[in-house]
Amino acid sequence: MTRYRPNYWHINRTLCDVLEEMRSCVKGVTFGAMPGLIEEAQMLGNRMESALGNLKEIPKMEAEYERLRQEIKKLGAKLPPDKDD
To answer: HSE-up of 62 (CA within 13 Å, CB side)?
Structure first.
């Protein structure tokens, strides 16, 4: 069972929205907004790429978490019992 719970942040625009606006600029032959749209598409693409990279790391992090949890359990067993005064 995975411990990962993705946070779904609502973003105002998706990459598909930006691409659709780019298509409408090309259809209407109005290229004034195109540099800004290209920049926005690049930013959204970078975010998606980064998120995919983070998802690849989750199994490694879970394995490391479990290993450390077992190590803590072993170290806790080696501690002497508490003495009540």
So the answer is: 11
CB 70 within 8 Å of CB 40: no
- Buried residues in 71-83 as b, exposed as e (16+ CB within 10 A): eeeeeeeeeeeee
Summarize pLDDT for 18-54 with one digit per residue, the tens. 888 889 988 888 888 889 889 989 988 888 888 888 8
What CA–CA distances, in Å, run from 63 to 22, 75, 77?
43, 18, 21
d(C-alpha 79, C-alpha 7), whole Å: 39
